[in-house]
Amino acid sequence: MRLPRILNQCHPIPGFVYGQARFTEDSQAILIAVRPRKGSSAICSGCQKPAPGYDQSPTPRRFEFIGFWGYLVFLVYCMRRVNCKQCGVVVEQVPWGIGKHTSTKVHMHFLGHWARKLSWKETAEEFWNIASWGRFAPLASTRFSMAEGTNI
Ligand SMILES: [Zn+2]
């Protein structure tokens, strides 16, 4: 069974399809391409309503997904812009992400779940990649020190 088929079963994304999965050049992460399903319209990030497409970025963005088998996993997607009658030309809203965050919602929920059971530091060491930890370390460190090493 191929990885996109497993993801469609476990984590379907309405209006989008999973494409090929591949390793990064250093074999440290798995990249899973995502593309819009044919005929599906994009959602305006301003008003959260469907809007006609305007263009699509040629540069893919990576969204961290829940890692598995010891690999970091990222969804890779080229964001579209929409030409919304109400909001103008704005980037689309994707169902797996929030604004400019680089983690998927499911990854944030996963980390939040474990952060309730472990300390933030332990959660970061177990599940976050170095880049993610660097961005969230100030917040996590504050919360960790406030709790003086106890689970929060
Ligand atoms: Zn809009």
Q: How much of the polypeptide forms β-strand, as a percent range?
A: 25-35%
Bound molecules: zinc ion
- How many angstroms separate the termini? 39 Å
Please report the total strand number as a whole number.
9
Low-confidence stretches: 133-152
Helix content: 25-40%
Order of helices and strands: HEEEEEEEEEHHH
Mean pLDDT, rounded to whole units?
Answer: 83
- What is the number of helices? 4
Rg computed from alpha carbons, rounded to a whole number of angstroms: 17 Å
Helix and strand arrangement:
Layout: H1 3-10, E1 16-23, E2 29-36, E3 42-44, E4 50-51, E5 53-56, E6 61-68, E7 71-77, E8 80-84, E9 88-93, H2 105-117, H3 120-127, H4 130-147
Helix pairs in contact: 2-3, 3-4
Bound molecules: zinc ion.
State the main characteristics.
34% strand; 4 helices; alpha+beta; five-stranded antiparallel β-sheet; binds zinc ion; 152 residues; four-stranded mixed β-sheet; 31% helix
Describe the structure.
- The chain is globular and about 45 Å long.
- The relative contact order is 0.13.
- The chain is α+β, with helices and mostly antiparallel strands.
- It is 31% helix and 34% strand.
- It has a domain at 99-152.
- A hairpin with a 5-residue loop joins strand 3 (42-44) and strand 4 (50-51).
- Bound molecules: zinc ion.
- Zinc ion binds next to loops.
